[in-house]
Amino acid sequence: MIRLRPRIPLRLRFFFRAAFALLALAVLGLALTLLAEEKERAWRSRRDGVDQTLAQIGARLRHPTGQLALMNPEARPGPPLRPLVLPFGAIDFDDRAKAQQAVEMAGCALQYADAVQLCAAVGSNPAAGGFLYLVGQLPLGPLAARAPGDTDFSHAHRAQVRVAMRGREWRWLAPYELPADAGAGAGRGKLTGFAVEAGTVADRPQRDFRGWLWQDARCIDGGSADDCLRRSYYSLRLPVELFREDLQAARGRPVWPPADLDRIEVHLRLLGPGDDAAAPLFDSDQPGATPPFTLAELARLLQPGESLRVRRLGPGRATEVALLSGPEDLAQPLSPLLERLIRALPVQDNPAPLQASDTVTTPTGRYELQLTGDRRGVDRALGRVATRTAWFVGALLLAIGLTWAAIELRVIRRITLLTRRAAAVRRDVKEGGEIRLDVAELRGSDELGVLAGTLADLMQRVNEDVHREHIRARQEKDQWHAVGHEILSPLQSLLALHGDPADPSHRYIQRMQQAVRVLYGQASPTEAFQATALGLSALDLDQFLRQVAENAPHAGIDAVAYEGPGGPLAVQGDDYALEDVVTHVLRNAARHRRPGTPITMQLQRAGQRAELRLHNQGPQIEPAQLERIFEYGVSDAPADSGSRGQGLFVARTWMAKMGGTIVARNEADGVSFVLSLPLA
């Protein structure tokens, strides 16, 4: 016979080449896809970041401190002290709490050392009269008040105020006075203002000059000494004549705040009892004061490359107030190739440029905020990610190339040859011939060589095992033929001796004849049971089980107790096969029960099925063996007992052929076998 060379269904060389090429393309595609998604996320993140930053800035500027910065964009830290426009119409300077609350909310106070504060401001409402307010706090010792009618102010605490504006100057001297109804040590008094011109103090106080000085009753250090330092607060309202002149000249359309507000100089000195030349308790021109919040501080909220433009909206045109920029991006520039690649990646809804705007309304007007992001900043940030990713992509491509070369040169050729030999083995198996696998040239010390040698040895052992199995099968078949022939003859004679159907032995002889017929002529017990067809019919299971329980002693099983449902219960079954099942289970229960304990059988109806529970008291079954005990050949009986591990296997086989089930369950005091059959 001519031996044809087996045909290989798939060329591995082409398959692996295509697979590695696709893998390399997939790595590149994955890298580009990830970069595109990263760019999309970066754009969305940058857009969201611009919106969030603008929202944060807008919220900051809508607060009174932010409005103060918007309304005073040209504010400069002193000295000299310069007034600011408040986001309030005026200050209720007569009320300490309201005055302090207005200053704290607006954040207009300069912060000096030792918790000293001072706010110089004008109200945003020109109808309030055009006054200049000085509100502050500082620690002071016991206050000395001016006696009524005393023209020598050196015995009292006093305030010296100077205002310079448009080449003119105003001065006041305001001594501390107690109200007429206040007793000694009162914590609240007036600062009565006397105008000072050419070094001469006026005889009468100026009516529009108003001031107050308050002092806490508690000491700052928590002590109780009379001469301790206490927190003191003051509030002054200064009449500025030029403000009033401007308001009167405007005739109903005042320009407020004054255009030269940032050029007004204010100087305040608080003096204690003593000569005016002595060191003041506080001087507003002293250095080191921390200024209020300004627009320039918003630059800290900006990202690299972002810029914030603030414009004041007016009729017909907008005036630029401030232009702030974020920190400089100090990252290394990208390579031109990588920059072009990133720029070419598509982005949906790509705004040009990144921009967001908002409007803030203050008492003096509306301001537009315009925040612009840096487009190139997104590409630079993505470029840094791409640079790190490129190393991993390059390493993956190198690994793919090395793996392909190794497989191509060392594995594929030998696998192809082994595949041809395996195809020849498959043909030999189909033809029923001897299995041969020639792998002499494939043997070696590597994994594939060891595999080839192992397969060759395995094929040889398979040939030997197949030959032995054929011999064993023939011998077993001959044995069953002989056993069946020898048993049927004496059973036929016994049946003639016990021909009365009422004789219990008659039924057992019939069961033996059926078992022999099942096994007669079959190759193995497993095949015999599986190939046998049962004759199913309606069977009263209650009456059947009562009879089995009564006949159990004849089979060598005593103390079997049966509990039925109290009436007929018909099922579909074969009475011989079912009796065989119950007997096998009873024998198994009798072998494992504790001496002197009964075996109980309980029958009940469970829906459309009948359920029989056989229970014995004794040791439990290992959980891992609950299913294996129904396999053929599994038995825990001693080897010399003659048990072949066939009883429970037969029981499950017959139950399956009758449409039923059998399971084993561990109970608290022993083991139960539950049989279930469909109702007739």
Major sheet description: 13 strands, mixed
Question: Measured on Cα atoms, how large is the radius of gyration?
Answer: 54 Å
Low-confidence stretches: 1-9
What is the β-strand count? 24
Q: How many helices in DSSP terms?
A: 12
Instruction: Work out the strand percent.
Output: 15-25%
Secondary structure class reads alpha+beta
Mean pLDDT: 81
Helix content: 25-40%
> How far do the termini sit from each other?
62 Å
User: What gross morphology would you assign?
Assistant: elongated
What's the topology here?
Elements: H1 12-62, H2 64-71, E1 84-85, H3 96-106, E2 110-111, E3 117-122, E4 131-140, E5 158-165, E6 168-177, E7 188-191, E8 194-197, E9 200-201, E10 210-215, E11 230-239, H4 241-250, E12 265-271, E13 282-283, E14 307-313, E15 318-325, H5 336-344, E16 355-362, E17 365-372, H6 375-431, H7 447-497, H8 504-519, H9 525-531, E18 537-540, H10 541-551, E19 560-563, E20 570-573, H11 575-592, E21 599-606, E22 609-617, H12 647-657, E23 661-666, E24 670-678
Parallel strand pairs: 1-3, 19-21
Antiparallel strand pairs: 2-3, 3-4, 4-11, 5-6, 5-12, 6-7, 6-8, 7-10, 8-9, 10-11, 12-13, 14-15, 14-17, 16-17, 18-20, 21-22, 22-24, 23-24
Helix pairs in contact: 1-2, 1-6, 5-6, 7-8, 11-12
